[in-house]
Amino acid sequence: MARIAYDHTDAAAFASTRHLGDDGAGQWRAAVKRVLDPRPGMRLLDLGAGTGSWSRAFSDWFPGIDVTAVEPSPAMRERSVHQPVLAGDAAPSVGQVEAAFAGEGFATVSLEQVPQITAVSLRQAADGLRREAHTPLQLITDEEYSAGVERLRHAALTDTGPVIDALDLLVLRRDGSSTHE
Fold first, then answer.
1. pLDDT tens digits, residue range 26-65?
2. Domain topology for 8-174
3. What is the dihedral of CA 118, 122, 124, 125, to 10 degrees?
4. What's the predicted TM-score (pTM) here?
5. Contact, 44 vs 66, CB < 8 A?
6. Domain ranges across the chain
7. Most buried residue, 14, 87, 166, 173, by most Cβ within 10 Å?
């Protein structure tokens, strides 16, 4: 089961604040190309596809690959910019994905964090923060959230650099296959 249900309100917040932007796309495209060597006919599985922006980007970047998006939330699937998007039962951890696919002969080839700028400044991040768009922020108390936002706004008064986030890129490959098969 996903950590939160991502109802229509959550999904709308996610769609408005957490889509893959053009700024981070270049780093992701380079990382995927480096570890996966995408080519026509290759299958790519996007687990926890959310609004489908990653799936659409993969399809746009690498014509001819077969992208399958899987998302447990019906509200997120309704907003998906990539079709088809299949229903899933959970938003699994890296370990759960590795274990699930190991029985079918898949092994981890690469797990790396890809950095991306999510806001040009802490002030912009604070101004655009929507609690319902971030799973971890929904799992803390209202008091913890308020205290964190206060610390963020205070830090934004003096910190002028960009906000850099990192997301995991996990690549599994069936035993015996290579990036060129």
1. 788 888 888 888 889 988 888 888 888 888 889 999 999 9
2. Rossmann fold (3.40.50)
3. 50
4. 0.68
5. yes
6. 8-174
7. 14
